[in-house]
Amino acid sequence: MDIHDRELNSWKKKGACVGVDQDIFFPERGASTRLAKAVCRSCEVQEECLEYAVNNGEKFGIWGGLSERERRAIRKKRGIVLKKKPYTKFAMGRPPKDLH
């Protein structure tokens, strides 16, 4: 899956997180994830978001209502082995604004 393909990622526009302060989805280590997970629970595209994160190896933040640790457990259970990604200038989980 091309993570920058606009058509494949059109679900992102329907997320309950649209317009919400994105910092709640990327809490500091040890900070609460309750607010982010509450937003995700009310989201109509929660499943698509989670599958995107699991299949693309998102390492940071709350995606589809789960933390990286929770997503890692899913990948392990499914036997998903991720390829190492080459370093890019937007490798920290937030693509350039022109890709949205």
Written account of the structure:
With 100 residues, the protein is mainly α. It has one domain (12-81). 30% of the residues lie in helices and 0% in strands. It has helices at 34-41, 46-56, 68-78. Helix 2 (46-56) packs across helix 3. The chain is globular and about 30 Å long. The mean pLDDT is 84.
- The portion of residues forming beta strands comes to under 5%
Principal-axis shape equals globular
* Distance between the amino and carboxyl termini: 16 Å
Class of secondary structure makeup: mainly alpha
Per DSSP E runs of 2 or more residues, the count of β-strands stands at 0
The biggest beta sheet is recorded as: none
Tally of individual domains = 1
Order of helices and strands: HHH
**Number of helices, where a helix is a run of at least 4 consecutive DSSP H or I residues:** 3
| Estimated helix fraction | 25-40%
Average pLDDT score: 84
Radius of gyration: 13 Å
Low-confidence stretches: none
Give the helix/strand layout:
Elements: H1 34-41, H2 46-56, H3 68-78
Helix pairs in contact: 2-3
Write a brief caption for the model:
Helices cover 30% and strands 0% of the residues. By secondary structure, it is mainly alpha-helical. The two termini are 16 Å apart.
What descriptors fit this protein?
mainly alpha, 30% helix, 3 helices, 0% strand
